[in-house]
């Protein structure tokens, strides 16, 4: 029987990730912990902004939905988000190293505060407040909330079954919020002890911290906060965090 891994990303991201897992010979079990709901926000005069700032793949989709202007420069939090922007027709894109603070550093290096306002397209909940961080350095940042992330109310049936029967080897976590929600739903379903035979694969130390309420057999943390590095933890046992 092939290894089975639960995928906790929102549905759209889960489909792409599932294909990447199948190419590795791993059977994905989709278990979205968040549902993405677009707000329908629009940007009337995108050309007046010096650049756009996008802190997630869903933010990239939100920017594309909010304006038809594709010539604007865009600063993306990481390469996966940059690729999503390219797929939406944007061409002047610079990608940071995968974290909000890395994105701040990139903008500080590339853009002068006096060169014009920045458009930040985000979800309703964020870990790094780009307006606050960049505002400290004199930047004018206008935020547009393009989507809301709604937490799952229950464990999906396939995930619940995999946990109850002990057929899942691990779980992929991309954010603290999804890790926290998963842990809460597992506890609510009376399946906490099942985690003791599984590995939590976490995008960052912050994600791992959020997952620690379950008694995992192991926690593995990506070397860098990228999808490819997270997938590498499925093979690289040296990425483990034993504590």
Detailed description of the structure:
The chain has nine helices and eleven strands. The protein has helices at residues 11-23, 57-66, 79-87, 100-110, 130-135, 157-165, 176-188, 205-211, 227-232, and strands at 4-7, 27-30, 34-38, 51-54, 74-76, 93-95, 118-123, 141-151, 170-173, 199-202, 218-221. The strands form two sheets. A six-stranded mixed beta sheet has the order 3-8-7-4-5-6, sandwiched between helices. It has a five-stranded parallel beta sheet with strand order 2-1-9-10-11, sandwiched between helices. Helix 2 (57-66) links the parallel strand 4 and strand 5. Helix 2 packs parallel to helix 3 and helix 7 packs parallel to helix 8. It catalyses: hydroxymethylbilane = uroporphyrinogen III + H2O. One of its GO terms (molecular function) is uroporphyrinogen-III synthase activity. Belongs to the uroporphyrinogen-III synthase family.
């Amino acid at each position: 029987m092939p290894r089975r891994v639960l995928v906790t990303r929102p549905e759209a991201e889960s489909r792409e990730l599932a294909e990447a897992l199948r190419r590795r010979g791993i059977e994905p079990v989709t278990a979205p912990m968040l549902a993405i709901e677009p707000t329908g926000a629009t940007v009337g005069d995108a050309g007046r902004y010096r650049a756009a700032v996008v802190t997630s793949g869903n933010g990239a989709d939100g920017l594309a939905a909010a304006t038809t202007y594709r010539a604007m420069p865009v600063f993306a939090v990481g390469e996966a988000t940059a690729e999503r922007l390219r797929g939406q027709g944007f061409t002047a894109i610079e990608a940071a190293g995968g974290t909000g603070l890395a994105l701040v550093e990139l903008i500080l290096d590339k853009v002068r505060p006096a060169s014009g306002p920045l458009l930040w397209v985000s979800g309703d909940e964020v870990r790094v407040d780009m307006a606050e961080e960049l505002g400290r350095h004199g930047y004018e940042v206008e935020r547009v909330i393009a989507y809301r992330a709604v937490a799952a109310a229950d464990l999906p049936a396939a995930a619940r079954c995999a946990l109850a029967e002990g057929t899942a080897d691990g779980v992929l976590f991309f954010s603290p919020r999804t890790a926290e929600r998963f842990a809460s739903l597992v506890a609510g379903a009376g399946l906490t002890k099942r985690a003791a035979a599984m590995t939590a694969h976490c995008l960052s130390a912050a994600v791992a911290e959020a997952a620690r309420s379950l008694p995992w057999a192991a926690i593995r943390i990506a070397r860098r906060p990228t999808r490819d590095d997270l997938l590498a933890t499925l093979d690289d046992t040296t990425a483990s965090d034993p504590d």
